[in-house]
Amino acid sequence: MTSDTFQMKSDIAINHIKELIMSGAAPPGSRITARVVAEALGISETPVREAIKSLVADEWLVLRPHVGAVVASVGLDNIQEIYGIRGSLGALAVELGGVSYTPQRIAEIDAVLRDCEPMVAARDVDGFSQLNRRFHALLSDTPQTTVINRMLTSLWSRTEGAKHGFRFVPWRLAESHAEHVAIRDAIVAGDYAHAARLVQQHERAGMNALLQGMQSQNEARPAGRRQETV
């Protein structure tokens, strides 16, 4: 096997495991074994083991004694850290990527916002979540912000893989949509500094709502049971 072929199979395994996590098929705490992944993909276990090592390094997975690799959990402290980083990176993406917000991109943003309206009205969490990712990708996926976009994609996947976000606070959809519209208006006006501040405020508001929802859920749990993951 050439090194290129090995790397390709390792990348396939990485993408497969990430998809399991992001789809919810492998929730936090689920064990990921090289044998099962290798059988699912029809490849040997060696590149899968390398994939697992890479995902541990990127904190998608954690190693537990006597268990092996499991899907990482996202705790209260992690939520504050993740959303804080998302806000800072998202703001920087807007400031650096402003030159790439062409009329065509603005039209794509507007189309996403229009599609969001019925999702908000119906409180369609899954539909809105997909459009939410699309909206933020349009802000960060520019030639000037390729590194930022990769980092943000990983952070978004961490919370989505843990089945958090709007599922905890469906009432947040309308607020989030209004904040998206305000960000869009600032961008159209060419005030990227203001748009960047709005992005940070948007992420902070999302974090506070999620923490509130998580706290309410934990308080509603029967005594003796503790929520360990988010």
TrEMBL record:
Residues 7-74 form the HTH gntR-type domain. Keywords: DNA-binding, Transcription, Transcription regulation. The keyword DNA-binding applies. The keyword DNA-binding applies. InterPro entries: GntR_C, TF_FadR/GntR_C, Tscrpt_reg_HTH_GntR, WH-like_DNA-bd_sf, WH_DNA-bd_sf. Pfam families: FCD, GntR. This is FCD domain-containing protein. PROSITE patterns: HTH_GNTR. It comes from Micromonospora echinofusca.
